[in-house]
Design brief:
The protein has about 400 residues and is α/β, with parallel strands linked by helices. The protein has helices spanning about 5, 35-40, 55-70, 80-90, 105-120, 160-170, 185, 220-235, 240-270, 290-295, 315-320, 370-390, and strands spanning about 75-80, 100, 125, 145-150, 175-180, 195-200, 215-220, 275-280, 305-310, 330, 340, 360-365. The protein folds into two domains: about 5-250, Type I PLP-dependent aspartate aminotransferase-like (Major domain) (Aspartate Aminotransferase, domain 2, 3-Layer(aba) Sandwich); about 255-390, Aspartate Aminotransferase, domain 1. The strands form two sheets. A seven-stranded mixed sheet has the order 1-7-6-5-4-2-3, with helices on both faces. A five-stranded mixed sheet has the order 8-9-12-11-10, covered by helices on one side. Strand 4 (about 145-150), helix 6 (about 160-170) and strand 5 form a beta-alpha-beta unit. Helix 3 (about 55-70) runs parallel beside helix 9 and helix 9 (about 240-270) packs across helix 12 (about 370-390). The longest helix is centred in the middle third of the chain and has 33 residues, at about 240-270. It is globular and about 85 Å long. It binds pyridoxal-5'-phosphate.
Amino acid sequence: MHEETRLLHVVTEKQPFRALTGPVHRASTILFPTVDAFLNRHEQFYDSYSYGLYGHPASNDLAAHVAQIEGGSHALIVPSGMAAVATTTLALVKQGDHVLLPDAVYGPTRIFASEFLAKLGVDTTFYDPLAGGDIKGHFTDATRLVWVESPCSYTMEVQDVPAIAKAAHDRGALVAADCTWASPLGFKALDKGADIAVQALSKHVSGHSDVVLGSISMREESLHRQVKDAMRFVGQGVSPDDCYLALRGLGTLALRLEKQTKSALAVAEYLRSRAEVTRVIFPALTDDPGHALWQRDFTGAAGVFSFVLSRGSEAALAAFLENLELFRLGASWGGLHSLVALAQIGAQRTVTNWNAEDHLVRINIGLEHAGDLIEDLAKGLDRYRDAAQAAAE
Ligand SMILES: *Cc1c(COP(=O)(O)O)cnc(C)c1O
C-alpha cells in the first residue's frame, strides 16, 4: 500500500474507549456493512443513522436527554429555536389550514406566520394569550394547529395551557408549545396537554450564549415521523459540536436556573422599590397577574423578566442602558452573563393592549452576585432619573 493510500485508511483504536462525555463524530457519510443494509438505509432514517444530515451520535444523545426531561418519547434536534417553531408548523399544516398564535408570541414567529405562512395559503389568527378556554371562539373547521408560548415574549403573560389544549383537542386541532423560558425543568408542556414541546436550546439549555439550536419533542410516533420528514424535505441538520455543547449545558441547567431565579427575585424586588420603575413583570413574584397559573402549572422559574420605566426620553434611556457596567445590551438570554434588551413591541400586538410609548426592558440575570447587579442597576436608574429631570428643567 502506498503512503498516500495509507494516509486515508487510519487504523482506528480497537480498545473500547470510555469517558464521561459522549462521542462527537463529524460525519456526512455513514457506512454500511452489507449491500442489503446500504440498499435499505432509509429504514434507519427515523431512529438510527443513514446520512450525517439526518442524525449522528451527538444529536441522538442530545435528543434522548431532551425527550426524557420533556417527558416525551422522541425529540428532534434542529438548527435553532426558530427552526423548531417553523419546522413543526410546516410539518403539520397545509394550504387552506388555519393556525392560532398568541398575540404576544416570540416576534420572529409572528412574522413567520404573517409573511411566510400567509404566502403558503395558511391563515393565522392572533388570540389573547389570557383567553384560556375562551379560545374556543376562534376555531374554524380549518383550524389545525394552536401554538402556546408561556410565558409569552417580553410581556410575559402566563397562559392556561391545559384549558387551551382541551379546547383545541375538542376541535381536533393539535397543540404545540414554545416554553423556552422555564426550560423543560420548569414546565412539562406534554404533561399539560401539548402534543409537541419546542425549546430554543440556544437559551437556558446550552446556557453559555455560544450555541444556536432547537428541539422538538413529542410522545406520538406519527408526529415524530411527520416532523422528521419535514426536516428532511427542507434539508435540516445540526453540527455534532453544537450538540456536544448543549449536552454539556444540560449538566448544569438545574444549578444555573436555581441561582438565576434567586438573584432575579432579589433584583426584581429592588426594581420595584424604585420610583422610575412603574411595573415589574415576573410570574414568580407573588402579586404578578400570572403568578397563580405559574404556581399551578410550573415547577420552576428563570432569571428572565421585564420591567416598565416611567416616561423618559431616548436620551435618558441611553444614559441608563449604555453605561451599565455588568449588564450588556443584547438580545437572546439564558446565558451566564446578565443582559438588558429593549422591547420594540409597537405593531407586534394586535388584539391586546400595549402602550407603544412605554419603555419595556427585559432582563436576563446571569451568574454574577445579585448585590453587584443591583448596584449596577441602581446607578443606571439614578442616571435615568437625572437625565429625565434635566430634560424637564
Ligand atoms: C429565542 C427564542 C426562540 C428562537 O430561538 P433561536 O434559537 O434564537 O432561533 C424561539 N422562541 C422563544 C420563546 C425564544 O425566546
